Amino acid sequence: MTQHHPWSRYVALGDSFTEGIGDPEPRSPGGHRGWADRVAEVLSEQTEDLAYANLAVRGRLLQQIIDEQIEPALELRPDLITISAGGNDIIRPNTDPDEVAGRIDGAIARLRSDGATVALFTGPDIGMTPVLGRVRGKVAIYNENLRAVAARHDAVIIDMWALRELRDPRMWAPDRLHFSPTGHHTIAIAVLDALGVEHSLEPYRPEPMHPVPWRQARVEDIGWAREYLLPWVLRRIRHQSSGDNITAKRPLAGRVRETDRTL
Questions:
Q1: Which Gene3D superfamilies match (predicted)?
Q2: Of the four listed, 53, 124, 126, 147, which is most buried by Cβ atoms within 10 Å?
């Protein structure tokens, strides 16, 4: 099979975004698929012996990703690394996006030290989302820092802020914090395009949305707050994480199974 990309060992680092939360799939390791699995599936179609590991764990803050994932990732000898980190820090009160970016700068330098291609993500424009919309300005500042980090270390940037499709509510999971299967599919396309990888993934072409009556929207908001927002707030108060007692779903670099490719 003709190889259309130069990579044979891909490792994904990060938090719930990279773990694939919001894109449930019982047949996938960990019970979630996500954009990184989708990217690995495409890469494996072009390089049959592609090895793929996913070290991401939901709820992880930047320092936890640095401490727990970077060295294990490098031990796997990857030639392609994706990392999305710092988002959970930015949405917390009193965090400084410049300070967070300073730490990720060091992380990218370490990941690039062995010559691997490294790709990182800006945060999406969350101005239309409840709760998270309040930190839109911090996300924008952090994104500008990330673009500078990518340029400084010759890394690839996946600009999710510019991905206007993500403003469609159907791109988001019911918790309004993670992406839906459609959102993960859209992000996988953006990653492959940024890496210059040929693929056959079709972009999402949604039907026009019908306006939701005000009363129905309020009922949905109350239901969302009870089911998702309140538990999230309680975890913050109790200093708990959704990733407590969770381990990486693909800790070792292995071949993507045929069943993964056809999900």
A1: SGNH hydrolase (3.40.50.1110)
A2: 124
Q: What residues contact 35, with CB distance under 8 A and at least 6 apart?
A: 18, 20, 23, 179, 184, 185, 187, 188, 191
- Taking Cα atoms as reference points, which of 148, 156, 177, 145 lies closest to residue 10? 156
Per-residue pLDDT tens over the stretch 60-75 = 999 999 999 999 999 9
46 alpha carbon, distance to own chain's centre: 23
Task: Name the nearest CA neighbour of 190 among 156, 229, 160, 220.
Answer: 160
Residue 218 Cα distances to 126, 221, 223, 230, angstroms: 20, 5, 9, 16
Residues sharing a CB contact under 8 Å with residue 111, sequence separation 6 or more, in sequence order: 70, 73, 74, 81, 83, 118
According to CATH, the topology of domain 9-203+213-261 is Rossmann fold (3.40.50)
- Which has the closest alpha carbon to 78: 106, 35, 110? 110
- Tell me what pLDDT residue 104 has: 97
Residue 260 identity: D
Question: What's the chain's average pLDDT?
Answer: 88
pLDDT tens figures, 20-56: 999 999 999 999 999 999 999 999 999 989 999 999 9
Tell me the Ramachandran region of residue 77: left when phi exceeds 0, alpha when psi lies from -120 to 50, beta otherwise: left
Alpha carbons 140 and 160: distance in angstroms, whole number? 11
Domain boundaries, the chain: 9-203+213-261
What is the phi/psi pair of residue 114, to 5°?
-100, 10
Q: Where are the alpha helices (DSSP H) in 26-79?
A: 34-46, 62-75
